[in-house]
């Protein structure tokens, strides 16, 4: 059974729950990337989502499933930035108290957005894992309800609503490239797409530095990784050893995994800005990077690259826009 843990019907239910809070984002053909790859390439522009990333879908799906008693206790989340922003946005909307724990490496633009949503922000720890330990302590002490960024059936079903939109807008899709960290996004999308057509190929893309899920899939069990600074800060962090859902779902559904370098990510961000006039953060641009640098063997179109987020620090974006023109030309050679 394809939907052995999370059923397609759960994704439709999630869509009903979150409909009024989450946008349906556009699917846009990238003329220039289609030309360069000789396939039709579309961008699922989730960088335009409310709060700037798809994380809103999963967070809304989970928080709206909580009981009144759970909501009154307050919620807590650990985040590399975008999940915290999504959780704090929904919480402020519903009048729920939210505490967000992040490491010291989460970019300032993401912290500012979380603060603006009125959440209590705890910036402690050098890595995602350390922030997580701190969150567990606070959660116990204050009896808060944990909103996991990926390893939760309601969250995964919420992310799956993005897959429904892809298959509705482009039923003939053959290949989908999805930025992958904990694997909640690709799992949800895979359940939606493979329920419609199991031959649709799902490719997880992540950065070379600290590719937790890719290394775990290769090893056949969850492995620990060292977290390093990367342009794809939204993909940073390991997979906790007590993972219940996403590792198994990825084992089952991810057809291929691809790694991209920091220079390739920068090049992809610049490409999206210049050619498609989209602001995409490093994590959201890894699919473009994989296509631009010909990382997918036997690519078959139509292709969809999920641009999972747009929350990039303006200073970083401007630096990339100014620096990587010549680099890109050399890499692509066209
Ligand atoms: C969280 C995040 C991802 C990865 O999602 P997972 O469900 O952890 O695989 C990808 N892109 C962006 C922008 C994110 O914030």
Describe this protein's structure:
The termini are far apart. The protein is globular and about 55 Å long. It has a 6-stranded mixed β-sheet with strand order 1-2-10-7-8-9. A 4-stranded parallel β-sheet has the order 5-4-3-6. It has 2 domains: 2-53 and 152-321, Rossmann fold (3-Layer(aba) Sandwich), CATH 3.40.50; 56-146, Rossmann fold (3-Layer(aba) Sandwich). The protein is of the alpha/beta class and 334 residues long. Helix 1 crosses helix 8, helix 3 packs across helix 5 and helix 3 crosses helix 8. Mean pLDDT is 94; it is low at 327-334. Helix content is 47%, strand content 13%. The structure holds pyridoxal-5'-phosphate. The site of pyridoxal-5'-phosphate has 19 residues, from helix 9.
The gist of it:
By secondary structure, the protein is of the alpha/beta class.
- Biggest beta-sheet profile: 6 strands, mixed
- Uncertain stretches of 5 or more adjacent residues: 327-334
CATH architecture level-2 label of the largest domain? 3-Layer(aba) Sandwich
Strand residues, percent: 5-15%
Radius of gyration: 18 Å
Class per helix and strand makeup: alpha/beta
Properties at a glance:
334 residues, Rossmann fold, 2 domains, 4-stranded parallel sheet, 15 helices, 47% helix, binds pyridoxal-5'-phosphate
Q: Secondary-structure blueprint of this entry?
A:
Blueprint: H1 8-18, E1 27-29, H2 31-37, E2 41-45, H3 55-63, H4 68-73, E3 75-78, H5 82-94, E4 98-102, H6 108-116, E5 120-123, H7 128-142, E6 145-146, H8 153-169, E7 175-179, H9 184-196, E8 201-207, H10 212-219, H11 246-253, E9 256-260, H12 262-276, H13 286-292, E10 303-307, H14 314-323, H15 325-332
Parallel strand pairs: 2-10, 3-4, 3-6, 4-5, 7-8, 7-10, 8-9
Antiparallel strand pairs: 1-2
């Amino acid at each position: 059974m394809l939907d052995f843990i999370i059923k397609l019907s759960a994704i439709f239910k999630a869509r009903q729950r979150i409909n009024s809070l989450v946008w349906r984002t556009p699917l846009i053909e990238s003329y220039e990337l289609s030309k360069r790859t000789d396939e039709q390439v579309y961008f699922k522009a989730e960088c335009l989502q409310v709060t700037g990333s798809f994380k809103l879908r999963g967070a809304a799906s989970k928080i709206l499933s909580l009981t009144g008693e759970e909501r009154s206790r307050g919620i807590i989340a650990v985040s590399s930035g975008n999940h915290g922003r999504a959780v704090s946005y929904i919480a402020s909307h519903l009048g729920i108290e939210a505490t967000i724990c992040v490491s010291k490496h989460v970019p300032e633009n993401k912290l500012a957005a979380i603060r603006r949503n009125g959440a209590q922000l705890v910036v402690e720890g050098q890595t995602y894992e350390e922030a997580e330990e701190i969150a567990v302590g606070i959660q116990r002490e204050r009896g808060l309800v944990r909103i996991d960024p990926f390893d939760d059936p309601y969250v995964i079903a919420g992310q799956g609503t993005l897959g429904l939109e892809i298959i509705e807008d482009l039923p003939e899709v053959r290949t989908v490239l999805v930025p992958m960290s904990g694997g909640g996004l690709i799992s949800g999308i895979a359940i939606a797409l493979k329920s419609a057509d199991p031959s649709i190929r799902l490719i997880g893309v992540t950065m070379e530095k600290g590719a937790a899920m890719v290394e775990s899939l290769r090893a056949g069990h969850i492995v620990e990784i060292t977290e390093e600074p990367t342009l794809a800060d939204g993909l940073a962090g390991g997979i906790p050893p007590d993972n219940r859902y996403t590792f198994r779902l990825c084992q089952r559904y991810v057809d291929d995994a691809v790694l991209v370098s920091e220079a390739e990510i920068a090049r992809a961000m610049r490409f999206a800005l210049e050619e498609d006039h989209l602001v995409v953060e490093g994590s959201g641009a890894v699919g473009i990077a994989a296509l631009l640098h010909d990382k997918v063997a036997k690519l078959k179109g139509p292709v969809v690259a999920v641009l999972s987020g747009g929350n990039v620090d303006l200073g970083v974006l401007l630096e990339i826009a100014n620096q990587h023109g010549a680099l890109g030309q050399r890499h692509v050679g066209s």
